[in-house]
Hints:
By secondary structure, this protein is mostly beta strands. Helices cover 0% and strands 58% of the residues. It has a single domain, classed as Jelly Rolls (Sandwich).
Amino acid sequence: MVYSSLILQKWHKYKKTLTNNLKIVSASLTPYLEYNDVTKIYISKESKKILLCELVPNQEENKIINCTLSIGETIILEAEGGNDVDLLIE
């Protein structure tokens, strides 16, 4: 298994058409917290916006997600809130 990291900047969207199967394993807040509020991570696929998780500073290190995505899917990932998010991808 090969893992990589993707940083989602707050209030930005990341759009990608997948060329490989992948799994979003977990999400965590980056170490440089700007605000002490909830950050929500969403994924949009097939015109449906789905909440993957909510991260609260100083409560949990990370959240396990285990969201499997397939080749050819077009996804949009976004972080809403005051902080950037680090996604672990397999």
